[in-house]
Amino acid sequence: MDAAAWGAELAQGEGAERIYVVEPTGDLEDDPNVTDKKFPDNPTRSYRTRQPVQIVGELEEWVGHSPEQLQAMRDGLAELNRRGLDVIYD
């Protein structure tokens, strides 16, 4: 749930922060940006797919991070970008 909150809070764009419950319509694979580098064997259950996902619900009540935590994460992401380490593995 923490990863979903980070995704909602750090997403670009206007409007309310949302966390959707989705189901895959095709094959899933472990997300190599998380599982191969940080958490081998995928204990975080982080996946990706090239196929569409179907929204089956929305979590309407969830707890986000404090303003200080958000700023620390943004600062850390900016530093990775500055150092050229903000890599997405395909």
Q: How would you portray this structure in words?
A:
The chain is 28% helix and 19% strand. The longest helix has 16 residues, at 67-82. The protein is of the alpha+beta class. It has one domain (2-82): Rifampin ADP-ribosyltransferase domain (ADP-ribosylation fold, Alpha-Beta Barrel), CATH 3.20.170. The radius of gyration is 15 Å and the shape is globular. The chain contains two helices and four strands; from the N terminus they run αββββα.
**Strand order across the largest sheet:** 1-4
End-to-end separation: 24 Å
- Unreliable runs, pLDDT <50, ≥5 residues? none
Rounded radius of gyration (Å): 15 Å
For the record, the count of structural domains works out to 1
Largest sheet: 2 strands, antiparallel
Q: CATH H level: which superfamily?
A: Rifampin ADP-ribosyltransferase domain
CATH architecture tag: Alpha-Beta Barrel
The whole-number mean of residue pLDDT values reads 87
Helix amount, in percent?
A: 25-40%
Order of helices and strands: HEEEEH
Total strand count, please?
Answer: 4
Protein name: NAD(+)--rifampin ADP-ribosyltransferase
Organism: Subtercola vilae
Domain Rifampin ADP-ribosyltransferase: 1-62
Region (Disordered): 25-48
What's the short story on this structure?
With 90 residues, this protein is an alpha+beta fold.
How do the helices and strands line up, and which of them pair or pack?
Layout: H1 2-10, E1 19-24, E2 29-30, E3 47-48, E4 53-59, H2 67-82
Antiparallel strand pairs: 1-4, 2-3
InterPro entries: Arr_sf, Rifampin_Arr
Protein name: NAD(+)--rifampin ADP-ribosyltransferase
GO molecular function: transferase activity
